[in-house]
Amino acid sequence: MLKFIIMRVLIIVFFISLFGFSKENNPKALYNESHRPQFHFTYKKGWLGDINGLVYYKGEYHFFSQHCSDGPDLSYPNVFWGHAISTDWASNRIENV
């Protein structure tokens, strides 16, 4: 019984640490989360699917992915195609599709 309670507390703490604090208003903390990739493309909020449609056109790399900006759940009405552009694979700008 004690293991069950400890496990539940750990799970709750884990989810609060992932989703309970908004970093949108703090630009310094936005890309410094402990589990955010630093050398791979990520959106500011939400999840992205596999990157598809890699295209090199007029000196820019374009890549497309499914993106859900509403959060970690898989709510398909809120999934849309995201589009990011990069010239050097290190800095990206996000465009509307």
Strand content: 25-35%
Low-confidence stretches: none
Distance between the amino and carboxyl termini: 51 Å
Shape category: elongated
What structural class results from the helix and strand content?
Answer: alpha+beta
- The largest beta-sheet arranges its strands as 1-2-3-4
Evaluate the radius of gyration. 17 Å
Query: Main sheet?
Result: 4 strands, antiparallel
Q: How many individual domains?
A: 2
Q: How do the SSEs run, as a string of H and E?
A: HHEEEE
Work out the helix count.
Answer: 2
The average pLDDT score comes to 75
Number of strands: 4
The level of helicity is 10-25%
Structural summary, described in words:
This protein has two helices and four strands. It is of the alpha+beta class. It has two domains: 1-36; 40-97. The longest helix has 18 residues, at 2-19. The radius of gyration is 17 Å and the shape is elongated. The protein starts with a helix and ends with a strand.
